[in-house]
């Protein structure tokens, strides 16, 4: 039987289609990353923790793809029989792939955490918040367990990627942690996809709009499907033909992670979609977006938090670190109104703006639309009425019109 010819350097075998798929999905994630940053910073002036986590998750995905690309240049996706003449090349390709897998394991949990933190901005019930934290915690714990088992399973450690080491062996079987991680990510994807239905179902809005919003926030089921497919390829990690048999696992890991990030990006960018749609139809936005510098004279502006955590003012210059520390402080302006002529008059101090959540949650309100704002306002009125012992009214001026009476007294000459 003739000996197979050695595979030349460069991508070969299954590497061509595998890298094409992985880079394509990464490009889509990068597009949504740019759209997300533009939406949060420019459209909403509301760059939050979930955005930072989203960026970190993309960085891990990118590093994962880069290391797999390095492995593909020297052997990833090629049958071992075409590489066995150069085991040093096999070892190096395996090392690059293993490093990439490490970033994929951690990046997967970060992507789920980004989705979880985003959902925390929407939910209000305590058990919803607790369940989200539990789901994120379980996912992170499973990822850490798999990462440690993967790299510490063999003695010596280098035997993980270099099977030429004499006496090397792997006493720890990483299959249990591998399957636990796969199942955990699938369950988290399913739960995070179904939870938005509970959030919007009780809102006072047309049924069709409920379906539209919930479906846009439930696209994580696609990531769950990718995770199920990835689970069926786990055994590729445990064959002598590792560089070839692990192609399916690597590709589906990248797809699941990328789809998770894409699914988060779609609903987050809904305010941007609305803005573009209105402009294409020559409609002026009546609410929900803050004008940029110079667009509206005399309008109050909220200090914009930059990605690094600082603030920039209306003129684009950095503000002092002690500015805007309290959420919504730029909205809380008070002034005195004197009623009457010269004689005794009632003087009332009023505040303009509203609650401190007006800055933090404007992204969530834009995603869920007017019904979400109406529901939140209704809950505020219910809380106020319960405190004062009367029924809430939509015409209550203290909450519905953005004017809050803070102090009233009589002045006698």
UniProtKB/TrEMBL annotation:
Q: Which InterPro entries match?
A: Rhodopsin_dom_fungi, SAT4-like
Tell me where the transmembrane regions lie: 15-35, 55-79, 99-120, 132-158, 178-199, 211-229, 249-273
What does the record say about its membrane topology? Multi-pass membrane protein
Residue ranges of the Rhodopsin domain?
Answer: 35-275
Report which superkingdom the organism of origin falls in: Eukaryota
Q: What is its main location?
A: membrane
A single GO cellular-component term from the record reads:
membrane
- Give the matching Pfam families: Fung_rhodopsin
UniProt entry keywords in alphabetical sequence: Membrane, Transmembrane, Transmembrane helix
Q: Where in the cell is it found?
A: Membrane
**UniProt-annotated stretches for the region Disordered:** 378-401
**What family is this protein classified in?**
Belongs to the SAT4 family.
What PANTHER family does the entry give? INTEGRAL MEMBRANE PROTEIN, PTH11-LIKE INTEGRAL MEMBRANE PROTEIN (AFU_ORTHOLOGUE AFUA_5G11245)
Q: What is this protein called?
A: Rhodopsin domain-containing protein
Q: Which species expresses this protein natively?
A: Emericellopsis cladophorae
Q: What is the lineage of its organism?
A: Eukaryota, Fungi, Dikarya, Ascomycota, Pezizomycotina
């Amino acid at each position: 039987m003739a000996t197979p010819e050695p595979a030349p350097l460069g991508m070969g075998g299954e590497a061509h289609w595998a890298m094409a798929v992985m880079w394509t999905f990464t490009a889509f994630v990068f597009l949504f990353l740019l759209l997300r940053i533009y939406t949060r910073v420019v459209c909403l002036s509301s760059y939050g923790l979930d955005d930072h986590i989203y960026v970190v998750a993309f960085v891990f995905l990118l590093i994962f793809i880069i290391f797999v690309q390095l492995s593909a240049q020297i052997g990833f996706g090629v049958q071992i029989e075409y590489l066995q003449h150069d085991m040093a090349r096999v070892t190096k390709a395996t090392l690059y792939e293993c490093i990439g897998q490490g970033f994929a394991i951690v990046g997967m949990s970060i992507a789920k955490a980004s989705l979880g933190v985003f959902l925390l901005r929407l939910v209000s019930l305590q058990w919803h918040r607790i369940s989200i934290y539990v789901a994120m915690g379980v996912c992170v714990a499973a990822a850490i367990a798999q990462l440690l088992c993967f790299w510490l399973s063999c003695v010596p450690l280098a035997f993980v990627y270099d099977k030429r080491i004499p006496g090397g062996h792997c006493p720890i079987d990483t299959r249990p942690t591998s399957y636990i991680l796969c199942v955990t990510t699938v369950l988290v994807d399913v739960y995070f996809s179904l939870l938005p239905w509970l959030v919007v179902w009780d809102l006072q809005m047309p049924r069709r709009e409920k379906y539209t919003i919930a479906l846009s926030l439930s696209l994580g089921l696609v990531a769950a499907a990718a995770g199920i497919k990835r689970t069926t390829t786990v055994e590729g990690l445990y064959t002598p033909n590792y560089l070839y048999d692990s192609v399916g696992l690597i590709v589906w890991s990248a797809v699941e992670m990328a789809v998770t990030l894409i699914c988060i990006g779609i609903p987050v960018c809904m305010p941007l979609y609305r803005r573009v749609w209105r402009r294409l139809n020559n409609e002026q936005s009546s609410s929900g977006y803050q004008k940029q510098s110079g667009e509206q004279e005399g309008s109050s502006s909220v200090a914009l938090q930059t990605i690094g955590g600082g603030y920039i003012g209306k003129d684009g210059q950095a503000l002092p670190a002690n500015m805007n520390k309290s959420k919504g402080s730029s909205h809380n302006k008070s002034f005195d109104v004197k009623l009457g002529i010269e004689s005794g008059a009632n003087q009332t101090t009023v505040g303009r703006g509203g609650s401190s959540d007006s800055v933090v949650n404007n992204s969530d309100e834009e995603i869920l639309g007017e019904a979400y704002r109406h529901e939140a306002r209704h809950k505020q009125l219910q809380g106020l009425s319960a405190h004062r012992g009367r029924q809430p009214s939509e015409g209550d001026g203290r909450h519905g019109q953005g004017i809050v009476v803070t102090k009233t007294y009589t002045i006698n000459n």
